[in-house]
Amino acid sequence: MSDSQRDQFQVAISVLIVDDDEAHAQAVAESLRRVSCDCTIANSGPKGANFIESQQFDVIITDLKMDEIDGLAILRKAKEELPDAEVIVLTAHSSIPSVVTAMQGGAYTYLTKPLDIQELRQAVEKASSRIRLIRRNISLAKGLDEKFGFEGVIGNSPSMHRVIEQLKNLAPTDTTVLILGESGTGKELVARALHQNSLRKSKPFVPLNISALPESILESELFGHEAGAFTGAATKRVGKFEFANGGTLFLDEVGEMPTDTQIKLLRVLEDRKITRLGSNDEKSINVRLVAATNADLKHEMEEGSFRSDLYYRLSVVTIYLPPLRDRREDIPLLIDHFLKELCKREGREVEGLSRGARQALLSFDWPGNIRQLRNVVEGMLALDTDGKLDIDDLPTELAELGGESPDGFIGGSGADMLIGRPLNEVEKYYIARALELTGGKREETASMLGMGERTLYRKIKEFDLK
After folding, report:
1. The whole model's pTM is what?
2. pLDDT per residue over 264-308, tens digit each?
3. pLDDT recorded at residue 7
């Protein structure tokens, strides 16, 4: 075997061998173990199907002709349960119709018996190399997305899927965008995602919170000023529009902007030019504007405190960010994201959240939305002393929502009714409740229950849960 081939096997390849000829299966496994493959043997089709349901494999090698469940059924099962795995079909018959069916069904390749060991190893190596290349590319892309892209806008709910689709469509454009949503819903994060996925990403992203600035200096912050333009202006100052030239300017809480400044902002958006305070010279600017507010701008227009012409200029496209209470199925994803981020920052390790603590976080209404959730998770991590975030680490207003009963079950009449019941009934009850809380999302449910997603899938089928 070449050096490059050995490098491919430095990290053990996980291989499932499905063959009702036990001696032949052992021989295949032994030949692959010699090149550091991690081999599992199933000496019947049903056993192979069970392994596919419960474990992860890189490569599945299956005999074509078997009783009960044959190789084609194993292939179909693999494509359903382990779509990333490659399947190699073995046949002693060289049956053209069966081989064609297998290849059409997604088999990576087929080999005829008696096997050429070198040919087998090469087939496994090539199949695993392809899988690892795909996974490496996915991992790299995911890492970039987590740092710069849309995966930072976390959510698996239908409402957040719509938001992310909007972002993907808008990012390559220069369209002015208005982001609406309650305080703490992640408006600046969405604006940054738009910028980082645009052609302007190498230029500045400049945020400015209108409500944080006194009216007397707001125009100077936006447009800049010359020395001596007003009392205290000792030196020239570049405004945010100039500083963001070529990039993106994010105006947060734009509903707080004074009427006089609204007029000047509208002129800048129409003319693409700014004039520093104290100067008569216009400067051309090339800035994408993204604005955000938690105010009802249409109501403000009716009252006359916000100009309708500016509203229509800002809201070329509007993105609405739903409050966290309306997308509770995203809470487990956000909790896990914040825990990972905060543990890395603090150099901490924790086992995760207890069922009671997770129940409390899922039950709370989160008036402060995502920002409040992150602050609570950070506070729990700071208070934790035993490596597991539990009800005693929660703020007082949340702790009572976790309510675990003395026997460790999450509180409520349902739990009390389960005392003394068979264990499988208890398990079924809690899986059903968790599915309800997550809106039927398997990934979030598995995370909540502390079990693998494949295990959860088997339990759902076992208990006939919907």
Report:
1. 0.57
2. 999 999 999 999 999 889 999 999 999 999 999 999 999 999 999
3. 41
Burial pattern 407-417, b for ≥16 Cβ within 10 A else e, equals eebbbeeebee
- The domains found in the chain, sorted by start residue, are 3-142 (3.40.50.2300), 151-322 (3.40.50.300), 326-463 (1.10.8.60)
Question: Would you state the structure tokens that stand for residue 437, as one six-digit string?
Answer: 């809380």
Long-range Cβ pairs for the range 107-113 (8 Å, 24+): 107/75, 108/59, 110/64, 113/24
- Is 50 exceeded by the pLDDT of residue 148? no
- Tell me, rounded to whole angstroms, the distance of Cα 17 from its chain centroid: 34
The residues, any chain, with a CB within 8 Å of residue 442's CB and separated by 6 or more, are 453, 456, 457, 460
CA distance 15 to 108: 14
CA distance 384 to 287: 45
pLDDT above 70 for 157: yes
CA angle 317, 327, 289 (to 5 degrees): 25
At 10, give phi and psi (nearest 5°).
Answer: -60, -40
For residue 298, the model assigns a pLDDT of: 93
Q: How far apart are the C-alpha atoms of 284 and 426, rounded to whole Å?
A: 68
- H helix intervals, 82-156: 96-104, 117-148
Contact of 400 with 369, CB cutoff 8 Å: no
In 3-state terms, the chain is what percent helix, strand and coil (to 5)?
55, 15, 35
Which pair of tokens denotes residue 345?
């920052």
